Amino acid sequence: MVKHLVTAFLFTGTALFSIDIAYAADGNGYDILPTLGGNGSGAFSISSDGSVVVGNANLSGGGFFATRWDLNAGTLQNLGTLNGGSFSSAYGVSGDGQVVVGFSNDSNAGGIPQAFRWTKATNTMVNLGALPGSILSIAYGVNGDGSVVVGYSLNSTSGRQHAFRWTEATGTMSDLGVLNNGSSSVAHAVSADGSVIVGDAADGNASNNDRAFRWDSISGTMASLGTLVGDQLSYARGVNADGSVVVGWSVGINSIERAYRWTQASNMMVDLNPLNPGLASRAFAVNADGSVVVGEAAISNVGTRAFRWTEDTGLISIEDWLRAAGVPVASDFTLVAEGVSADGNVVVGVTQNNSAFIARVSSVGSGIIDVNEFYASLANKPSANVGLNYAGTILNGAHGEPMRNLLQAGQQSLWVTSDIGYDNGSASDGAFGVADFGYGLGLEGGGTARFAFGGLYTDQDIDAGGNFINKGFYLAPEVTLPVAGNLYATIGGYYAPGKLTVTRGYLNGGVMDYSMGEADLDTWAAKLRLDWLNAATLNDWNLTPYASLTYAHSKLEAYSETGGGFPASFDAVKDHSTVVRAGVDGVHRLDNNIRLLVRAEAAYRFEDETAATSGIITGLSGFNFAGQNTNQFWLRGGLGAEMDVAGGTASLNVNVTTQGDDPTVWIRSGWKVTF
After folding, report:
1. Phi, psi of 379 (to 5 degrees)
2. DSSP letter assigned to residue 168
3. How many whole angstroms separate alpha carbon 558 and alpha carbon 80?
4. The predicted structure's pLDDT at residue 383
5. Which of 86, 440, 480, 586 has its CB 3.0 to 4.6 Å from that of 490, i.e. a possible disulfide?
6. Are 304 and 297 in contact (CB under 8 A)?
């Protein structure tokens, strides 16, 4: 069924749309809604198949415009305006996402807002006009196949609103009238087949007080749903798939609102919170068969909570619904529930901190999450960039001293090296280790060929919760050739197949929960480096300036998590890095056997962000995040020594860097024998 006006916003103070992102809500979950380059966006409805979100967004130059966000394609489309108008907004979308309705000001109608109907087939807004005697119109809802549109039209003389029903078959609006010669009416929602419309109308038989109404195509008339006993006003906001159940709220003379559920079978409203007649409640949505109602209620004197109602449980808070299903919920924090899935097992709404929540009880996972916190765990999950970082570390760490490993023609060498340290990145921190074995051969003409194979391992805590482990092996061939004089060029390669195991942590009901997944992580890289050996001498230090360019490419295969209340499936992702480095190596001979080593280096990564992250929250909606910002520039310093002993050369270096692709601090140690 099509939700009538399902909204979820973040607020700053009391200003609407003063945020950078909004969330679209229905039973399929929440997705971050992007902007059109401005400072805000809003989500008003989502298709029943969960594929399309509609609302509005700001342009960088100002103004707001109707938007259609295709979740499957990951695209946000500006639907434009009517005949050169200056603003528009989308309020409703058909079940398959092919038809969008809302309003736009129309330059051909004096800039007055007009109801529009947009179709994907034509990619064009069509002005639905207005009722006779009216010029302003707003479309709020559309049925499942997009053939029926509802809303209201404002009379230009009386200033009164009349609910309308527009059909594709006739191409015209029909006036749904008013209740008993009342003054006004507004249609808010329509059933999936378009035969039933609900909303509010001033009732002439009730001193023009507002009454919830239900209009059906069989009788062609608007009928008052009345009020709860003793009340003065009532409002309708939700209707189920076949129009047999209506929900909203009724207001008494004491101004207390009470949520109701009206059924066609009984033709009467039922108070959803009869045990607390003095506490307010409002119902906003109902599931497909009408058995589950959600909204907000002052369940006790401690404050308002989102509620879920069924005949079996009565009106209970979302937190208590979850607890009854065996979910540990640390504290109560919901404010209002605004959407419910067709089967009634997923509820979405807003917390007391004005952030979106998703709550569910299902076979794939149960619990409740704050969308802000949960999406941070998805967006900050380690990805293919892990492979890129360690490719750079190995090529420029364990294999970053070609001038210390030159051989004469026919000479050979064997070595073992290790890099062990600590990496404090922007989203994780922990230990890592690299170890390899290598063989070198001196070539005719002054060149040296080297080949190494080794293994890598890292175990890091994720700042958003959980940890990841990356392990694998690598192959690293390289050759150093003289270019001219003391100028040498080194060309190197790198290939590392491995595994990335991620345990993603997030709060579920205020309690830490974990979902785990594993995928192949394959990385290859190439390096070009120039060294000017002993280009200068300073205070008995031989200085060798160098520059290098490293390109790395990594792919993390798709994988699905298991465990936890909200596991997700992540799409495969490819990433790359291009890093240029410039520095100087210094060597100072203490005696014939011991040499001091220093290094100073600056590095720059050309890419300003990592690859995007996309996938599906199992049983809910898709997600698509832009990549994380990279630290493009960093510095590295190194201090160490090498010693000739027992027929070989032992070395030890300490390296530290500012935050970037390289680890924070690591110790390189090695043993080499030449023969």
Report:
1. -70, -35
2. T
3. 36
4. 92
5. 480
6. yes
Q: What is the pLDDT of residues 422-463, one digit of tens each?
A: 998 878 899 999 999 999 999 999 999 999 999 999 999 998
**CA 586 to CA 543: how far, in whole Å?**
5
Report whether 177 contacts 132 (CB < 8 A): no
Q: How far apart are CA 251 and CA 14, in angstroms?
A: 25
Q: Is the pLDDT confidence value at 6 over 60?
A: no
Q: Which amino acid does the sequence have at 158? A: S
Q: What share of the chain is helix, strand, coil (3-state, %, to 5)?
A: 5, 60, 35
CA distance readout (Å), 225 to 236, 261, 289, 400, 662? 9, 10, 19, 79, 68
Query: What band does 40 get if pLDDT is binned at 50, 70 and 90?
Result: low
Mean pLDDT of the chain: 88
C-alpha 300/C-alpha 317 separation (Å) is: 10
Number of H helices, E strands in the chain: 3, 47
The token pair that represents 495 in the structure block = 């290939």
- Segment 313-335 mean pLDDT: 93
Q: Given phi > 0 = left and psi -120 to 50 = alpha, else beta, which region is 430?
A: left
Sorted by sequence, the CB contacts under 8 Å of residue 274 that are 6+ apart come out as none
Task: Give the pLDDT score at 42.
Answer: 64
- Residue by residue, DSSP assigns 381-422 as S--THHHHHHHHHHHHTTT--GGGG---TT-EEEEEEEEEEE
Helix or strand run (H / E) with residue 670? strand 665-674
Q: Which of 519, 527, 491 is nearest to 391 (CA)?
A: 527
AA letter at 323? R
Q: What is the pLDDT of residues 262-312, one digit of tens each?
A: 999 999 999 998 878 778 999 988 888 999 999 999 976 667 899 999 999
445, with CB counted inside 10 A (0-12, 13-18, 19+), is exposed
Residues contacting 370, CB < 8 A, separation 6+: 333, 351, 353, 355, 356, 357, 507
The predicted structure's pLDDT at residue 24: 42
* Structure tokens, 134: 């009216």
Q: Residue 45 in contact with residue 22, Cβ under 8 Å?
A: no
d(CA 570, CA 382): 11
pTM of structure? 0.78
Q: Which of 303, 305, 270 is nearest to 286 (CA)?
A: 270
How buried is 446 (Cβ within 10 angstroms: 0-12 exposed, 13-18 middle, 19+ buried)?
middle
Residue type, 286: V
Whether the CB-CB separation of 170 and 187 falls below 8 Å is answered with no
Instruction: Label the pairing between strands 648-657 and 303-310.
Output: unpaired
